[in-house]
Specification:
- The chain is built from 12 helices and 12 strands.
- The longest helix is centred in the last third of the chain and has 27 residues.
- Helix 2 runs parallel beside helix 9 and helix 10 runs parallel beside helix 12.
- It is of the alpha/beta class and 365 residues long.
- The radius of gyration is 22 Å and the shape is globular.
- It has 2 domains: 108 residues, Aspartate Aminotransferase, domain 1 (Alpha-Beta Complex); 223 residues, Type I PLP-dependent aspartate aminotransferase-like (Major domain) (Aspartate Aminotransferase, domain 2).
- Strand 5, helix 6 and strand 6 form a beta-alpha-beta unit.
- A 7-stranded mixed β-sheet has the order 2-8-7-6-5-3-4, sandwiched between helices. The protein has a 5-stranded mixed β-sheet with strand order 1-11-12-10-9.
- The protein binds pyridoxal-5'-phosphate (PLP).
- The site of pyridoxal-5'-phosphate has 14 residues, from helix 3.
- GO terms for molecular function: histidinol-phosphate transaminase activity.
- Pfam families: Aminotran_1_2.
- Belongs to the class-II pyridoxal-phosphate-dependent aminotransferase family. Histidinol-phosphate aminotransferase subfamily.
Length: 365
């Protein structure tokens, strides 16, 4: 047959995920760590990989890595599950707790993957829009939860792309108010230095998502994990792809996790640089940065689309949200190396100055 019937109806109108990667000198668009793993760790990785049997299926549960993560978090192995990036585990969440006739609660503007996964699995999405300052509307949240039909909730903390983490006391009240599964996405917790992990002891309905892609410089490897009570992990086990975490990724992850202390200076540098970039944005005319607990800063400005293009023409790629609902006029810059940050600030100020001059000329004419 030289034609094909239509794909599943929930795919109609969907656009495949596009990270909006473009060639640039400075990639400040995807919240990656600007520094790759250091040479010594890379050498250890090479040696470890050299002894990985490539003809054998990997350990489906990545138990070596699982045990290391469990121990570091004071948990049993049965409370940890690795995935092919955090993204796989987010999809597994929608498969296991969503589906036709089921409903999830979402707090836009937030990570777009949550709503996309709900749609793919025919899960209804109830949106509670964030307030003007991007904080969660707690009253509306508890009111909606009281209806009793929400099956799972996803809260990014810190919230990508807006920047701040959710207040600890709100997360605790949320977990107390519902028996829905609550995923707290802590993809950036190494930068926010804040976790709800202690609440696992008292909340069967909590699942925490983490990733190796940001603080640990492994976005290219695809490793993420969840922490939850064994009953919750068991439901994820039912839907996951058995061999999603390949043997090479497991080996890389083990070496990096063993040496995770070596990433601390880099993390500290990013946190310091975040303060410096924030101050520079605050003192740039017409630019309004939002506070951040993470490794990026969202900021609002006039002519944001033109500013994005000007930065890009000069080799600096930031993320353009200027046409995204609830984020109109916003760009997001990932904190890079000090040199990259300097260049970003210089170029943004040059754009603002040039625009100011053009306006003054136009006013005189
Ligand atoms: C980056 C990110 C993740 C996970 O990314 P992976 O690379 O798939 O591990 C999860 N949630 C948020 C909010 C993120 O920004």
């Amino acid at each position: 047959m030289n034609r094909v019937r239509a794909s599943a109806p929930q795919l109609a109108g969907l656009v495949p995920y596009d990270p909006k990667y473009l060639p640039a000198r400075a990639f400040l668009s995807a919240n990656e760590n600007p520094r790759d793993v250091d040479a010594e760790v890379r050498e250890l990785i090479s040696r470890r990989i050299a002894s990985v049997p490539l003809n054998r299926y990997p350990d489906p549960l990545a138990n070596g890595l699982r045990d290391m993560i469990a121990e570091a978090n004071g948990l049993d192995r049965s409370c940890v599950l690795l995935g092919n990036g955090g993204d796989e585990l987010l999809f597994d969440l929608a498969l296991a707790w969503g589906g036709p006739g089921r409903t999830c609660l979402n707090f836009p503007p937030t990570f777009s993957v949550y709503a996309a996964n709900a749609r793919l699995t025919n899960t209804a999405v109830v949106d509670i829009a964030r307030r003007e300052d991007f904080s969660i509307d707690e009253e509306a949240t508890f009111e909606r939860l009281a209806v009793g039909d929400i099956d799972y909730v996803v809260v990014a903390s810190p919230n990508n792309p807006t920047g701040l983490r959710a207040p600890q006391d709100f997360l605790e009240r949320l977990l107390d108010a519902t028996d829905a599964l609550v995923m707290v996405d802590e993809a950036y917790f190494e930068f926010s230095r804040s976790t709800v992990r202690p609440l696992l002891a008292t909340h069967e309905n909590l699942v925490i998502l983490r990733t190796f892609s940001k603080a640990f410089s492994l976005a290219g490897v695809r490793l993420g994990y969840i922490l939850a009570n064994p009953g919750v992990i068991n439901e994820f086990l039912k839907v996951r792809q058995p061999y999603s975490v390949d043997a090479v990724s497991q080996a890389v992850g083990e070496v990096v996790y063993e040496h995770r202390a070596r990433f601390e200076p880099g993390i500290r540098e990013i946190i310091e640089e975040r303060g410096r970039v924030m101050e520079a944005l605050r003192t740039t005319v017409g630019v309004r940065p939002y506070p951040s607990d993470s490794n990026w800063i969202l900021f609002n400005m006039e002519d944001a689309g033109a500013a994005w293009a000007s930065l890009y023409e000069n080799g600096v790629l930031v993320r353009d949200f200027s046409a995204t609902p609830l984020l109109e006029g916003c760009l997001r810059v990932t904190i890079g190396t000090p040199e990259q940050n300097d260049e970003f600030i210089r170029l943004l100020r040059a754009f603002v100055a040039e625009r100011g001059q053009k306006r003054a000329q136009a006013a005189r004419a």
